Amino acid sequence: MDVLNLLFGSAPGIGLATVAVTVAAGFVQGVTGLGFAAVFTPLVVLIAPYPHQVVVLSLFLGAVLSLGVLVQCRRDLQLPRCWPLLAGGLIGTPAGIAVLIVLPARLLMQAIAVLALLVAATGLIGLPRPFRHEQAAVGSAGLFGGFLNGSTSLGGLPPALLVSIQRWPAAHGRAALVAFNLASYLLALASVALTGTVAADIVLGGLWLLPAAALGALLGTVAARRLPDPVFRMALLGVIGASGVAALLTSLRP
């Protein structure tokens, strides 16, 4: 049995739970510009224990949502400031795909859980001062984020922390993060297709969840327009911390 048969061919409660998780993940994506995979991947793996297939399903849904959100906030995208983020993601994602193929999924989820919880704790204690050499810091966050995106589909954590540390305005940070996510998602999907890591029917099966994801993203986009900058930064840290807890629970599952 694969992930799609388990989600849609088993008890109705499993399918409803998956739809609810998808709506919630879409809402987070719409509010912050990232976070779909941070919510979707760990929670769906708890429902259907097929981590590698869930990662690919998450990449597909996240890419479609990111495209829609980017169209909506395209005027807020500051390319002179965020291009190193995009470049780093394009370089780091193929390396993450290679790790996804080789390393056990449990080890990957444990690593991302520890990282996410450390990042969230750092933000709650107090964000450090903005980096003086911003472009170097932005590029490093993109590189590490791309690696994590290719290996776990949770690559938004380093860019989210960077946006919070640099105190970017909410609209600019959201646009930069969604552009990063879209570029990384598309590259990861292309790499998966070329390597044959997961069958194409997993991606096509994601079409069943697109309406739920789109509904959540639409609600999140409406909510994002009313968020002041400090609340936006706290929302980012909340997404990071929640993803760490969910990833830890997933990795401890027998």
Automatic annotation (TrEMBL):
Subcellular location: Cell membrane
Keyword Transport: yes
Keywords noted in UniProt: Cell membrane, Membrane, Transmembrane, Transmembrane helix, Transport
Keyword Membrane among record annotations: yes
Main location: membrane
Domain of life: Bacteria
Pfam family of the protein (one): TauE
Transmembrane segments annotated in the record for this chain: 6-24, 54-71, 83-102, 108-127, 175-196, 202-224, 231-252
Membrane disposition: Multi-pass membrane protein
Family recorded in the similarity comment: Belongs to the 4-toluene sulfonate uptake permease (TSUP) (TC 2.A.102) family.
Protein name: Probable membrane transporter protein
Native source organism of the sequence: Pseudonocardia hispaniensis
